[in-house]
């Protein structure tokens, strides 16, 4: 009994010591709602639309506040001014990525999205330079997108104006653009390989916000033994990595360092340079995760934006008609090209508003502080997880007069000319902003204008158009059907 009493006393002392240490560590931490043991503030958070809950909490605690989700502390940044202040004015201090239990079993800190430190810097530099070489801003990739637009139109025409679900088709068309940069290859829309890869990515994005995934991140040692959707993430990740390994093994055998045709070739050539970086960073774990990161990011956000665009055109046929008139006046029957965009202010404004209203990544990807920092009067210790809430920026009333409505005039001046808005940051800001932003802008303009040049989009008879987003890490439309009525 005496031994038990000693052990209990020691446990209490250790617990109190930890509490004291945490109290000292988190002195002058951003305020937030009172937290319950174990579950933290989870009862306050709408699991399907956490961004809405954060916006409500910000009304009480301001633009910088904290919440506890399970055992994890988060600092939430709301509104453009706070987000810009962190990601631009304190770019280096907010450039980290938090280490999660899910991430530790999947990416393991490799690739570019979840990487940190020098590994992240090397992979991001390589990604940006290689995307420039094989894609962004080059005439070659514009021609590939135009060719893919033709394939997509043929597929749409095959339905003869009858209702169809556009999810898989648009996913595949957009995926082919990033695949052309990664592999110098194109898949047919019904190819089993591309269908499988898209399913793995879409499934993981859908379940990333599920309760079991959040519980796993909070209590990994307990939850790892339980069945649930968190296990599906690991299974899908392993299948994706297996495909990538098989692909770059084939590429390694065919590699000609003097004739590099795609990103994987460029990475494998780096491996063979024999420099210190070759061993430290250009290894197969980084390659596998980098390719997976770029495939997912290059497909999901752009294809989801296009699907929102067509859904919104069905909802607002008068806007669709105005775009088609502008296309006729500027482009006529020629193929849309990127250079047409500067002559098409209304179409450009609508595409921007689709991105703003669609709010594709409402929570942003989480950041973490790379050092202790005092930010806006609050102390954030090194390693604090920070969510710069993109939803709050794209709905910021100080910058958008009708934030909850679809209103292309957010991006037009009184003369009908295109007007920039500094709070339009769907690709985020700073050192962690989307590396493929320029490619995505090119794809959105070319796919969207080509589709509206050739089709009028209508809802199936009797269908109700739902503009609420489906559950998931990204905001995507609920499954729906469209009718593409040929215009010529």
List keywords for this structure.
alpha+beta; two-stranded antiparallel sheet; 488 residues; 10 strands; 52% helix
Concise summary:
This protein has 488 residues and is of the alpha+beta class.
Q: What this model shows, in words?
A:
Helices cover 52% and strands 7% of the residues. The protein has 18 helices and ten strands. The protein has helices spanning 2-25, 50-61, 80-89, 101-105, 117-134, 139-157, 167-182, 192-207, 211-218, 220-223, 229-254, 263-271, 276-280, 284-315, 317-330, 345-358, 390-394, 437-454, and strands at residues 64-69, 72-77, 367-368, 373-375, 378-380, 385-388, 455-458, 469-470, 476-477, 483-486. A four-stranded mixed beta sheet has the order 1-2-6-3, with helices on both faces. Strands 4-5 form a two-stranded antiparallel sheet. α7 packs antiparallel against α14 and α8 runs antiparallel to α11 (229-254). The longest helix is centred in the middle third of the chain and has 32 residues, at 284-315. It is globular, with a radius of gyration of 24 Å. The protein starts with a helix and ends with a strand. Mean pLDDT is 90; it is low at 14-21.
């Amino acid at each position: 009994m005496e031994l038990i009493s000693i052990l209990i006393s020691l446990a209490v002392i250790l617990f109190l010591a930890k509490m004291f240490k945490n109290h000292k560590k988190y002195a002058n931490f951003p305020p937030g709602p009172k937290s319950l043991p174990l579950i933290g503030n989870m009862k306050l958070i709408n699991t399907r639309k956490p961004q809405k809950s954060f916006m409500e909490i910000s009304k009480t605690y301001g633009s910088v506040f904290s919440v506890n989700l399970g055992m994890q502390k988060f600092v939430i940044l709301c509104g453009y001014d706070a987000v810009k202040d962190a990601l631009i004015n304190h770019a280096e201090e907010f450039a980290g990525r938090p280490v999660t239990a899910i991430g530790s079993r999947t990416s393991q800190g490799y690739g570019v999205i979840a990487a940190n430190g020098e590994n992240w810097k090397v992979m991001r530099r390589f990604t940006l330079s290689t995307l420039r070489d094989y894609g962004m801003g080059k005439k070659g990739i514009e021609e590939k997108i135009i060719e893919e637009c033709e394939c997509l139109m043929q597929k749409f025409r095959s339905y003869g104006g009858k209702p169809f679900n556009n999810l898989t088709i648009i996913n595949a068309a957009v995926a082919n653009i990033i695949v052309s940069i990664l592999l110098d290859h194109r898949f047919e829309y019904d190819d089993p390989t591309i269908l499988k890869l898209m399913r793995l990515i879409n499934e993981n994005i859908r379940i990333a916000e599920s309760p079991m995934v959040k519980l796993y991140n909070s209590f990994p040692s307990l939850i790892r033994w339980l069945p649930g959707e968190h296990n599906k993430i690991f299974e899908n990740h392993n299948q994706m990595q297996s495909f990538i390994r098989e692909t770059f093994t084939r590429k390694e055998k065919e590699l000609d360092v003097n004739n590099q045709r795609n990103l994987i070739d460029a990475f494998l050539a780096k491996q063979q340079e024999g420099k210190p970086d070759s061993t430290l960073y250009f290894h197969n774990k980084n390659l596998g995760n980098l390719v997976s990161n770029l495939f997912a990011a290059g497909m999901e956000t752009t294809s989801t934006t296009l699907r929102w665009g067509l859904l919104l055109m069905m909802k607002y046929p008068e806007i669709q008609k105005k775009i088609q008139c502008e296309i006729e006046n500027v482009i006529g029957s020629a193929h849309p090209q990127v250079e047409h965009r500067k002559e098409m202010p209304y179409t450009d404004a609508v595409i921007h508003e689709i991105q703003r209203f669609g709010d594709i990544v409402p929570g942003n990807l989480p950041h973490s502080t790379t050092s202790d920092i005092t930010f806006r009067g609050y102390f954030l210790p090194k390693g604090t997880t920070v969510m710069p809430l993109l939803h709050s920026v794209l709905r910021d009333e100080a910058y958008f007069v009708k934030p909850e409505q679809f209103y292309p005039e957010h991006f037009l001046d009184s003369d009908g000319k295109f007007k920039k808005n500094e709070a339009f940051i769907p690709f985020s800001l700073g050192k962690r902003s989307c590396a493929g932003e320029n490619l995505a802008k090119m794809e959105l303009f070319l796919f969207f204008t080509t589709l509206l040049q050739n089709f009028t989009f209508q809802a199936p008879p009797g269908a109700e158009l739902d503009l609420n987003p489906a559950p998931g890490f990204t905001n995507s439309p609920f499954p729906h059907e469209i009718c593409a009525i040929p215009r010529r």
